[in-house]
């Protein structure tokens, strides 16, 4: 090879950094990374609330068997495989486990036998949706708009309720409230606004890794991205470089004056700088692609690519962190579940001045051992509303929700409230991808396909000008850090194999 091809990676999240590290390690290309924001990590962001470390972005390693992020964390000595159970002991519960309820804290009396029964029914229905063959057979008899996870489990749960002929009206209401709680929790896990947003036919293509489903990094997820960035040459990553236009093609005008050589791709940044490249690996979020693909690429992306961008869902999952003057909970593993009549009759008079979005705050959790911070999850359409709400109003509404659904009256003063901003962040526009009812599994593959492809009939030197990575391009691991990481490796290896040939 007489020269080193120039490669620009757009985005310094986990996908961009894994791609850049793989390319740098090969020694075959000249690689640089352009990051729009002022920090590394993308949707991985460890910060502090008071003196308490918190994860504003990704919280856990999902699965500890066959997970490259877990293996990397162990190689870096951030975790040890031998004592991983102790490392995760302070995690309250995963999103599919039976909730841990303290009857003394709930206004609504819920018998554990009823909770177990409802949870078993809900878990059975969700597990059934992961059976692709069964779901495709089920979908043959219904219209496309009804082929959703929400429709399937709602129908199944109603069938269960109808079979409970000996239940009193009060017991049925409690079971329904528990169902709504579990439904809200599942929406948060997937990242959607409603389970009716989710494609039923291909939902089972998602792969859950074995081992602990919720393994935290005690010293913060940022340690992973920092370790990857440290493998790159100084000056390789350019922060505050938002790419605003990507010209791709074979125009002779796309040249680098310093090298007097033509390049098929030229990138313009919002700060006025330009970069030329032979290949570009694009790792921006699906949310950014949805918002900007029509203005970002020149010429425009082909219709199959834009259809995939439009069809796939991109949800917003956020967190509110409430720092109390001191903990009021008895143990490090504390969870406060807000279970009650969330879909109230319009004539129902709430005992507090609680706003509509606060009714969807379903659980509060401790963040770390010894912390005086509770973490509240939220997702979907209400995310943008919450992100625009002042800390003072968030404090008021969170306290109102606690008062509405629990027996807790006297709480320590709140000293600080912070929230995430993934939905309004111009460089993310949300949190992670889900398989919407408008999409199908092949949309992930379409989004991942490079332009032009190696078999497109174009000149060899012009192939793979635009390559795509990020969690939205992994068909089995979308919505995860390990999925994003693997796609960066995938595209780097695709390019290196192409160059070798």
Overview of the molecule:
This protein is an alpha/beta fold and 501 residues long. The protein has three domains: 6-43 and 236-314 and 435-500, 3-Layer(bba) Sandwich (FAD/NAD(P)-binding domain), CATH 3.50.50; 112-205, no CATH class; 317-421, Polyamine Oxidase, Chain A, domain 2 (Alpha-Beta Complex). The protein is 33% helix and 16% strand. It has helices spanning 14-26, 68-75, 84-87, 112-129, 132-139, 149-163, 169-190, 222-229, 286-296, 303-311, 382-387, 391-405, 442-448, 481-500, and strands spanning 6-10, 30-34, 46-49, 52-55, 237-238, 243-248, 255-256, 261-262, 265-269, 274-277, 279-282, 297-298, 313-315, 317-324, 335-337, 363-366, 373-379, 414-419, 432-434, 466-468. It has a five-stranded parallel sheet, covered by helices on one side. A hairpin with a 6-residue loop joins strand 16 (363-366) and strand 17 (373-379). Helix 1 (14-26) packs parallel to helix 14 (481-500), helix 4 crosses helix 6 (149-163) and helix 4 crosses helix 7. The longest helix has 22 residues, at 169-190. The model is unreliable at 344-350 (pLDDT under 50). Keywords: Cytoplasm, FAD, Flavoprotein, Oxidoreductase. GO terms for molecular function: polyamine oxidase activity. Its main location: cytoplasm. Residues 14-496 form the Amine oxidase domain. This is Amine oxidase domain-containing protein.
